[in-house]
Design a protein that fits this description.
The protein has 346 residues and is of the alpha+beta class. It contains five helices and 24 strands.
């Protein structure tokens, strides 16, 4: 975008503001409620001649805005093409991030279906079903009346060395379409709990949950890099094992769908900012290292690899684990390939 904003240089009394400009075709015969903080919109049976509602939602640092069919979203879209929890915008002092919440029909960023979180800029266009959302980023004054200035506490973004772990459930969307929602939610909640315990026991941090996905990280120095890389690999093995155990012992639909997961690891430099919004931390690490971790998980899904480890994670601990080279792989958005490994079966 023009006049690129540098969040670390903004005046203290200013904050980054994201304006989401919605264009929503609606069914004029169906009840519709909408307001500046979201609402419910009926998108059933709309066509090219349907009227369009135009609305602006403003997000300040620490705010998030979730879109989906379930009633506890910030914007509820009554349309079968929209998933229960479809996509989410999250604002921090580093910008605005768009995440797809493992929706069935996808979230589109500038015409491209996304599989990992993306950073948004002024002029970007997002599509969720029939909705078009245009993005505008600018600096705004702190609104004393709204209390927005109290919603976030942040530090300047800085470069850190991290090992990123991404794990999610295989065929989760297919299972969600065919199995009872209550049992799916209960199993996913139990799995989240087990995975969280394993990660934290080995010194990792849970960064975020996205749909059926967990992202965790280990912050390192050059001196602790090999120690944390080894911890992340041990955790990955344990996650795969506990998931198989849960499938065998606790999953009542295992004869139709096994409860399986994939794990991907990547190590490198990322931008970190301790973003606190509404009492919780949000989007603490951003950058290519994180994006590659998500994309390696996608490569694993295509190749059928339960565990995909980048060379940057494997090389510091090459003598400690029985690695098997899987060769170079192409990841979306990069001109070069990434060398990857997995662990040999013992």
């Amino acid at each position: 975008m023009s006049d690129e904003l540098d969040p670390s240089q903004k005046p203290k009394e200013m904050m980054l503001v994201a304006s989401l400009h919605f264009e929503v075709p609606v069914n004029p015969s169906a009840p519709t409620t909408s307001s500046g903080s979201g609402g419910t919109l009926n998108l059933d049976e709309v066509d090219t001649d349907s009227p369009v509602i135009q609305e602006v939602i403003t997000l300040r640092e620490g705010d998030s805005f979730r879109i989906g069919r379930a009633r506890n979203n910030d914007l509820v879209l009554q349309n079968n093409a929209v998933s229960r929890f479809h996509s989410m915008f999250s604002a921090s002092n580093s910008g605005l991030v768009l995440s797809d919440l493992t929706s069935l029909n996808g979230t589109f960023y500038n015409g491209r279906k996304i599989s990992t979180p993306v950073n948004l800029s002024t002029g970007d266009e997002v599509k969720v079903g029939n909705i078009k959302i245009s993005i505008d980023m600018h600096l705004g004054g702190v609104d004393e009346d709204s209390g927005a200035h109290m919603q976030t506490q942040s530090t300047a973004m800085k470069a850190v060395l991290v090992t990123v772990l991404v794990t999610d459930i295989a065929k989760f969307t297919t299972m969600s379409q065919q199995l009872p929602p209550k049992e799916m939610a209960e199993m996913l909640d139990s799995w989240f709990g087990e995975v969280t315990n394993v990660i934290q026991r080995e010194g990792g941090e849970i960064d975020k949950y996205i749909g059926d996905c967990v992202m965790a990280l280990w912050r390192s120095t050059p001196e602790t890099l090999s120690q944390n890389a080894a911890a992340s690999i041990r955790v990955s093995n344990e996650i795969l094992a506990l998931t198989d155990k849960m499938s065998a012992e606790s999953w009542q639909f295992k004869d139709k769908f096994a409860w399986k997961c994939r794990v991907a690891l990547n190590t490198g430099e990322a931008l970190s900012g301790n973003i606190g919004g509404k009492g919780s931390r949000d989007f603490t690490v951003l950058g290519d290292t994180v994006n590659v971790a998500f994309r390696l998980e996608g490569v694993g899904a295509v190749k059928g690899w339960p565990l995909t480890i980048s060379a940057s994670t494997a090389e510091p601990v090459m003598s400690e684990f029985p690695f098997e080279s899987m060769g170079p792989v192409i990841v979306e958005g990069r001109s070069d390939t990434v060398e990857v490994y997995t662990l040999k079966d013992e």
